[in-house]
Design a protein that fits this description.
Layout (H helix, E strand, L loop, with lengths): L3 H22 L3 E5 L2 E5 L8 E8 L5 E6 L5 E6 L6 E5 L1 H13 L4
Antiparallel strand pairs: 1-2, 3-4, 4-5, 5-6
């Protein structure tokens, strides 16, 4: 039968193993610029593209319309409750922007 101290030691080794694996998966991205190594944050969100259009909501508030990296239209709102910014995606506006871009094509 396995003693209690052996079980505890096994659990500690298992936890340490998971910690080592999790640190390995968070490897740093580094680029060489001149003679300096610069750490690059790869978890950074891509910058949205400003379409130049505006969206007026039901409260008559005007918002800039942006495109995500996947081509989805959204506006940036601020939560009244928490004060945090969030993206509100606009599927109908996405469709309209795609149609507007297709109308100008000469295929």
């Amino acid at each position: 039968m396995i003693s209690k101290s052996s079980r505890i030691l096994g659990i500690i080794v298992l936890i340490l193993g998971f910690l080592v694996l999790s640190q390995h998966s968070k490897a740093q991205n580094v680029q060489l610029k001149g003679k300096t190594f610069v750490q690059v944050d790869s978890s950074r969100k891509s910058q949205p593209i400003d379409t130049g259009y505006e969206y007026v909501d039901k409260d008559n508030v005007s918002h800039k319309v942006f495109l995500s990296k996947n081509g989805k239209a959204f506006i940036i709102r601020v939560s009244k409750k928490t004060g945090k910014e969030y993206r509100q995606y606009l599927p109908k506006v996405t469709e309209m922007l795609k149609e507007a871009n297709n109308d100008g094509r000469t295929d």
